[in-house]
C-alpha cells in the first residue's frame, strides 16, 4: 500500500495500539499522525510506518487542505475518522 498525506491508518504497536489516525506529514520512515481528539493537529504523533497498517482509504479533503494552506482543523479530522469507522462497521 502507498503511504501518503491524508491516508487513514491503523496503529499496530505502541500505547495507541488499536486506534485509527490520519497521516498529516511524512518524514522518511516516519509518519506524523493525528486523530483530532487525543492527538491534535498542533502536536502530531511521530510513528514508524512499519507500526502502522495502511487502509485503502485516502481522505482527499484533508490532503488538499494540507497542501493548500498547511493545516486542517481537528474537528475535520474527527469527522473523517468517525465516518470511516462507521463505514468499516457496516462492512
Topology:
Elements: E1 7-11, E2 20-27, E3 30-34, E4 45-48, E5 52-58, H1 60-69, H2 74-90
Antiparallel strand pairs: 1-2, 1-5, 2-3, 3-4
Helix content: 25-40%
**How does the major sheet shape up?**
5 strands, antiparallel
What is the overall shape?
Answer: globular
State the low-pLDDT regions, or none.
none
Can you put this structure into words, describing what you see?
- The chain is of the alpha+beta class.
- It has a single domain (7-90), classed as SH3 type barrels (Roll), CATH 2.30.30.
- It contains 2 helices and 5 strands; from the N terminus they run βββββαα.
- It has a 5-stranded antiparallel beta sheet with strand order 4-3-2-1-5, with helices on one face.
- A hairpin with an 8-residue loop joins strand 1 (7-11) and strand 2 (20-27).
- It is globular and about 30 Å long.
- The two termini are 20 Å apart.
- The relative contact order is 0.24.
Question: Notable features of this structure?
Answer:
single chain, 91 residues, alpha+beta, SH3 type barrels, 5-stranded antiparallel sheet, 2 helices
In brief:
This protein has 91 residues and is an alpha+beta fold.
